[in-house]
Amino acid sequence: MRVFDTTLRDGDQMPGVELDFYDKIEILRALDELGVDIIEAGFPASSDIDRKAVRAAVKETSRAKIAALARAHPRDVDEAAAAEAHIIHVFIATSDVHMKYKLRMTRSQVIERAVEAVERARSYGATVLFSAEDATRSDPGFLVKIYRRVVEAGAGYINIPDTVGTATPWYMEWLVSLIRRSLPSWVWIDVHCHDDFGMATANTLAGVRAGADGVQVTVNGFGERAGNAALEEVVAALHYLMGRTTSIRMELLTPISRLVASKFGVETPPNKAIVGRNAFAHEAGIHVHGILKNPATYEPLPPESVGNRRRIVLGRHSGRAAVEWALKNIGVDPEPDLVKYILDKLKEYAPRMKKVSEDIIVKWINEYTRQERVKTPYP
Q1: With bands split at pLDDT 50, 70 and 90, how would you rate the model's confidence at 375?
Q2: CA-CA distances (angstroms) from residue 219 to 6, 13, 267?
Q3: Quaternary structure per UniProt (predicted)?
């Protein structure tokens, strides 16, 4: 499966986020090391930073191809070409609501503009990727028509965006299947899903099931509004749930998640799938007992395989197995009376403390030890 990362373009459009040139280059290098196939490094016509970032990206990456975004407008296409992008990503809206209120163009005018932009981009010798913005709210017949026309004009690579996240997995599967059947088999097809209804990952996987051979994603799902399909979720699901392979180095998923979160100034939620601090954390007694016997009982994949780690958390839901593990972890013999003492303390204090640290456990061990000495004084 082809992985197209747009963290530096769509992710960078996240409200309140401003990446400078050096932030972009650091993230770019990490994405290249991760194994991403295509990196959309920016929108050259939108800013000087993006223009410089795309130009630098071409020289900085060792394996990834660099894409630059361009509206179906001559100046945008020329700017992307001037930045020397390997792939010029041309887009224009195709839904009736966008054409009427944003573009103020007819369907025939939109097709004409798209074809002209694709031909112009192709004249520079670049690979041309064409996106029909708001594809999932577009008339399917018109969508097929415009994709066919841009392919005839020289675009060998198309993208199907769920721009405002309104698709359902079953509709995404139907639509991608329709477009796949309607185009030559050699045309590359990506899906690009937004998370407005929390279905970006599911919709992306549905698109793959229907015949898409590429996924467009961002690290941590960062992006406009509710964000995009998250790279780490999509790639892990492709590998572990769908039996698909990618060029991604899975063990680097958590490190790059933390790097991007730091550069964006956005803290990753602890319960974030795959890369969150709690993604492989266990507190409930039944779960911990199972995990300590065999991690597969409550973990869908090994945390180390995605660069994360297992955490056994102590709290009021903990059982004997968790306490015994915690004591062994700090080099203390988990004798039964001590385990019971710690468990009783957890039930009493954990709800108020919220977080039971190792220091608190050591404090309770010392309290228990002092009490035992009082009960059995030296002769």
Answers
A1: low
A2: 8, 13, 13
A3: Homodimer.
